[in-house]
Amino acid sequence: MTLLGRVKGFVDHAEAYAIHRKLVHVRCRESALELTAHRKTSVGALRVLVDGKLGSSYGESPDEPELLQDAREAASFGQKADFVFAPSQTYADASCYDHECAELTAGDLIDTCMDLCQRVTQMDADARANIVCEAESGRRRIETTEGATADQQFSHASLFVELPFVSRQADVGATAHVVSIYPLHVSDAWLEGLLEMRAWGAGSSVPASGRLPVLLTPQVSHLLTLTLAECLSSRHVAAGVSPLGEKIDSAILSEMITVEENPLHADLPLRRSFDDEGVAVEPRTIVDRGTLRGFAADLAGGAELGIVSTGNAVRRTLFSQRIENAPIPCWLGAIVAPGRTAWRTMMAGIEEGILVTRMLGLHSSNLLQGQFSAQVNGFHIRKGVPVGYLERTMISGNVFEEFAHVRAVSREREPTAQGPMAVAGLAPYILLDAVQVTSG
Amino acid sequence: MKDTLRAALRNLDVDYADIRFDEERKTQITLGNERVEQMTTFSPRGGHVRAYVSGAKAIASFTRIEDAQRVAQEVAEAARIAARHVSDKIQLADAPVIVQEFPVHSDGDPREISLSEKRDLVAHYSQMALAQSDVLMTQFMYSDSFAHRSYANTDGSAVEYEHLISHILGILVGRRGDAVRRGFFAVGGSPDYRRLLDRDETLRESLAELDELLSAQPVRAGSYPIVLDHYGAGIFIHEAFGHRSEADLLIHDPAVRQRLEIGTEIASPILNVVDDPTLPDCGGSYPVDDEGVAARRSALITEGRVAGRLHSRETAGVLGESVTGNCRASDAGYEPVVRMSNTVIEAGVSTVDDMIASIDDGYYIAGGAGGQGGIDFTFGARWARHIRNGKLEEMVSDVNLSGNLFTTLKGISMIGNDLRLFEYCDCGKGSFDGVQMITRISAGAPHIKIDSVTIGGVSS
């Protein structure tokens, strides 16, 4: 019997969430195998309403008998909820499952990594690769007493490659990701691009402090999308702490910036047809050529704001996406629209500026107001050419002020980075006109 | 449980293997603006196996203890496959065999407190914060966790150990006009629930800071002399040096390793830093790590020179040094990695007044809002106050600092005589399958003065 079947009759309303997940992980360092890891888990989360009061529980297995007892006890001390769980609804097809991907073994991934290491060495005899290759598959299922039955199988394989700079410590280098349902396709051109970036890091260069053009790679697009998630959270808008709360249909960013929430997008390797409360997702425009069009709501936040859920519940905190986290409003697929310019042309037009490939310590910024201040990895650009990797360099400002002055958006677009603060989606390179750069 | 784990390791045909199984009981209560957003009690369980064959390693996580033997066999087979591909063979350092139990004891055990009492305590702090004008949103999170961990390895160690922790975190969001700022409240971080009680004064201090922050202007970008308060200095040593003392971040980096050889002068001679998991009643204290090695105090910097580093059995084997008992995992889903415990800058002789008086144009930096470590490190402060001509003046906001490990440690010119240890903190570190957040960690420091640090901010 399913978890929901077991709890029906014992509570007024219930939402049962189960994820079965299999992960195979292989890690290489300096082109040599370092680790193989396996994880096979089935986890379950239960939310219940008893006399209108909310309680929840979580277990390492959806079959745990304590789940119901724990959730009922929590509800007995809880407070009235303003919402009920997701009703019966129809979900779009967002298939992202491949049987072959789901059956990949550590041996298969080792072969992929070793082949890639060999190709790197053939292209540059001095280069050594740090690689993380993963295959993940599973099934997520959410059922509610209101009739929602959301069920999705998923699988994807991912490859993270880092080529440490010759002159630098091991934790900085040229990096790139590939994520796909399967197979993982790594073209020679992709590898050549990575090796070229490694060559840019042959030495360091420190730009003079001041306001400079800053070119952001897709991997740091969460500076924009995470800030938008914070400011457009229905909970923050309802509480009156969002600076965007009264700005629907107002210009908040450059006309060159359009952001869509579309977890169904065909180019996303991890498509979703429902959010973490079983609410169906659908494409929505969030920022249309710089003008704000919508918020992000989960069931509770929507109730606080007087709107229905927009299908944006994500069980996450700033650093982790795990089923034991309570749902909060966030993006499941933030798609930043591409522009018309090649990103290399954008870089070539920078007289003096920086290319940012990674931001460190962004989590300590006040993103709820759009304020950011973070150390960056990347390259110093002079006369359109990278002249060395950045050292001791910070960028700071306000997202809404800096993204109001965008010089160009690239036509190329990539899936955004995997990582603790990452927001799922697709993003182009974005060239900001002038951002405070401070070097020590 | 120990016998079950030992049985799972029998006849594995490996050079070395270990296994642990965690049984936890957790409570989490989250209040958003006095409304209960989440009340959860749950009992996560799970295990983790590591196997080593001919210098290759394989690991796996599992959920049910009934699967322990099967998973151990699978991991052993995976290690045998991996052994065909490794070039850098892992050589584990020796560690004493331990067969012991380490039960936890608390006179204020949070498990004996009812859910309603815990909820009422958090609601009290939430109401108090919301009563202040301009505070529009709060989120208060109560959390307690009891963990019973069982461990066995093929050397013969068999250990059972327990952890107990409770804490409250509060995020206070205020708005005045267009200014939106956050305040923080963090108490607890020990097995004693009573530490969470009667903390109104601590919350009042946080609310007063937030009130002043709402009128503060963003800091000016540039390089300045700074005075770090206890918390800021603790975060600084954790991010700037502590992570570089974790030997797993060092062994693959020959250039940095050379610069951090034992005995090398890397800091001001007045600086002494230790990592000590044996300190009584501290957030980062524990009796034994997650590979069955007894915890011990490690000197990291003595009179400005590198004195030691933190190890797992793997990293100690690579560097030919002794184990230190610093290999830990946040839960059964993760491989244990090298982690700090209680990392402390030892007290010096200066007073904070002397430090401030010595600065013409700089900042007094207070509190920590998270950071990231590396040779170039960064961390955020809760607030700062401009120092002009030796005097504390207006508060400034949005303060993030960065620096280079080597130049900054040498730039410490004064160390205070007022050492204080943190209550609660946490730290994330990259691992297979994401970031491992660990809550059993702490730091401490007196006030310190650094002659030059880069601050990101608005244009000067």
Please give a structural write-up.
- The complex is a heterodimer of chains A (440) and B (460).
- Chain A is of the alpha+beta class.
- Chain A has two domains: 3-199, PmbA/TldD fold; 204-440, no CATH class.
- Chain A is built from ten helices and 19 strands.
- In chain A, strand 5 (149-164) and strand 6 form a beta hairpin.
- In chain A, the strands form three sheets. Chain A has a six-stranded antiparallel β-sheet with strand order 3-2-1-4-5-6. A five-stranded mixed barrel of chain A has the order 7-14-15-17-19.
- With 460 residues, chain B is an alpha+beta fold.
- Chain B folds into two domains: 2-215, 2-Layer Sandwich (PmbA/TldD fold), CATH 3.30.2290; 218-456, no CATH class.
- Chain B is built from nine helices and 28 strands.
- Chain B has helices at 2-9, 68-83, 115-130, 200-213, 230-245, 254-259, 313-319, 352-357, 405-410, and strands at residues 16-32, 35-42, 45-53, 56-62, 99-102, 135-153, 158-176, 179-190, 217-218, 222-228, 273-275, 298-302, 305-306, 327-328, 337-338, 342-345, 361-366, 371-372, 376-380, 383-388, 391-397, 400-404, 412-415, 420-421, 427-431, 434-438, 442-445, 448-456.
- In chain B, strands 9, 10, 17, 18, 19, 20, 21, 22, 23 and 28 form a ten-stranded mixed β-sheet that branches. In chain B, strands 1, 2, 3, 4, 5, 6, 7 and 8 form an eight-stranded mixed β-sheet that branches.
- In chain B, helix 1 packs parallel to helix 2 (68-83).
- Chain B starts with a helix and ends with a strand.
- The interface between A and B is large, with 85 and 91 residues.
- Strand 2 of chain A pairs parallel with strand 4 (56-62) of chain B, so a sheet runs across the interface.
